[in-house]
């Protein structure tokens, strides 16, 4: 990743915000105009460090600069979006002023909105930081399944996804997630990709808390796109070393009864596919729900697929799965990016039906990049199978 273009883009975007806001702030107070330029200069200089600090600084300083850079990335996003909205609002006010001069005061709108943009951006960044750093809340979801046998009625699946262990999410954060999952006493745990942002050498110790996950039938993992950015082959081995079953276009069979005294057991398929884009990194990892189903016995009464990206759903439906668990989208993570997910994925968050297939898309249990969540809370999902 080149240094100069990142800094150039960052400074140009911040300069545009300043060009739009600073004159109207300075008209009210020279100090306000100066304060805005200082804020923008600091943010513009720090933002690229969220990506570059490891290359440019010692480890301790790099960690601090990474944190500051990613915080400024969230701040810069809000500043840019709010400035765009302010410019649209200003055009509307100028239009009204042309026909109804007494309706709005253009001067007051300019001054008030120029101050409101940085204030709202700072508040959104602080509130988003709190939302991102708290331990994800549990979301309870009932999935109605036709012809579900009595033995599987109430079967519970705890899903975590998109944790992104890396520069700002490490072992202590992950341990809180593991403790909360274990408190649910689920029948199985699914990790639907994007566990890490970094190499095995950097982060092996940071993912160690996952070894403590407990459930009736164990923990299952599928790769996400960020595993491939971070060295998927090494991470597949590292996750297996934690005692977690990695599903690579394959399935396992689970035999389940509701309690030890219940003589009736039901057989279910738990399958997993590699990430939808995995073939761009390794052709042998091409995602294939049909291969994941191959050889599954006809008497398996319920078929579950773990697939990182929701867009695996069309092939999953054709392959005969009943439920797909996905992540990837983060629910948009923070406004307004949630409105853009639909252009890449069929589902943004929550439970949806695609013909005969249920698809649940997690908003993610951690976050990527800026430690910021607004309007898309992180989640640990407990899905329960119930009779339709």
UniProtKB/TrEMBL annotation:
Keywords: Hydrolase, Membrane, Metal-binding, Transmembrane, Transmembrane helix. The lineage of its organism: Bacteria, Pseudomonadati, Pseudomonadota, Betaproteobacteria, Burkholderiales. This is Calcineurin-like phosphoesterase domain-containing protein. CDD domains: MPP_YkuE_C. The chain crosses the membrane at residues 30-52, 64-85, 113-130. InterPro entries: Calcineurin-like_PHP, Metallo-depent_PP-like, Metallophosphoesterase_sf. Residues 157-331 form the Calcineurin-like phosphoesterase domain.
